[in-house]
Design brief:
- The complex is a heterodimer of chains A (115) and B (115).
- Chain A contains no helices and eleven strands.
- The radius of gyration of chain A is 13 Å and the shape is globular.
- Chain A has strands spanning 4-7, 10-13, 19-25, 31-37, 43-51, 54-57, 64-66, 76-78, 87-94, 105-106, 110-114.
- With 115 residues, chain B is mainly beta.
- Chain B contains no helices and twelve strands.
- Chain A binds chain B through residues 4, 6, 9, 40-43, 45, 48, 50, 56, 58, 90, 92, 97, 100-101, 103-109, 111, and chain B through 9, 32, 34, 36, 41-46, 49, 51, 90, 94, 98, 100-103, 105-108.
């Protein structure tokens, strides 16, 4: 079955360490996204990529980095510069944005805890 | 400014009763509106969308939503609630972002259906 796989499901890190969250999709979607979810705040866009080797900052990109070397993969690195990294991170994909009405397909998320 | 408001943090309803989860939006131009559902520790699942046409949109799991342009609302409804409908519901609207159509999410409404 096609879908989006995020790994690991739970991740624990010490403050000051960088950590990379994996996101892989086999839906053949061009566009991929990273969102952060905090209780009572909905979802906030971190980075998005509309095509391989291209990505753009979202609303809260500071302290995060991404790469898009393959269509299937869009890993997110949470750096030590992110002041409050503990959150639930969601990866999503969609068909090209030019159509404007395509729904997002989400992975099951990675819950990151930094202590 | 583009925004989405879900005025209720939580909605409680008895099984078998009708349910409504409210959403209002503010966006320039014609809105593309979406509803998503999230079960605990999972990603979001697409329920339905309004792009154009009939103001009453039918979606997955018996849910429907009514688009009201004059009230800038897109309330989610179901005629008869099930306990299994208990989850977190997000309303979202497309908004332009520098050539890219960004999805803006509301803060979410927790639906609790009691037996």
């Amino acid at each position: 079955d096609g879908g989006i796989t995020q790994s690991p499901k739970y991740l624990f890190r010490k403050e000051g360490q960088n950590v990379t969250l994996s996101c892989e999709q086999n839906l053949n979607h061009d566009a991929m996204y990273w969102y952060r979810q905090d209780p009572g705040q909905g979802l906030r866009l971190i980075y998005y990529s509309q095509i391989v080797n291209d990505f753009q900052k979202g609303d809260i990109a500071e302290g995060y980095s991404v790469s898009r070397e393959k269509k299937e993969s869009f890993p997110l690195t949470v750096t030590s510069a992110q002041k409050n990294p503990t959150a639930f991170y969601l990866c999503a994909s969609s068909i090209p944005e030019g159509q404007g009405n395509s729904p997002l397909h989400f992975g099951n998320g990675t819950r990151l805890t930094v202590t | 400014a583009q925004s989405v408001a879900q005025p209720e943090d939580q909605v409680n309803v008895a099984e078998g009763n009708p349910l409504t989860v409210k959403c209002t939006y503010s966006v320039s131009g014609n809105p593309y509106l979406f509803w998503y559902v999230q079960y605990p520790n999972r990603g979001l699942q697409f329920l339905l969308k309004y792009i154009t046409g009939d103001n009453l949109v039918k979606g997955s799991y018996g849910f429907e939503a009514e688009f009201n342009k004059s009230q800038t609302s897109f309330h989610l409804k179901k005629p008869s609630a099930l306990v299994s409908d208990s989850a977190l519901y997000f309303c979202a609207v497309r908004a332009p972002l520098g050539g890219y159509n960004k999805l803006i999410f509301g803060a979410g409404t927790r639906l609790a259906v009691h037996p």
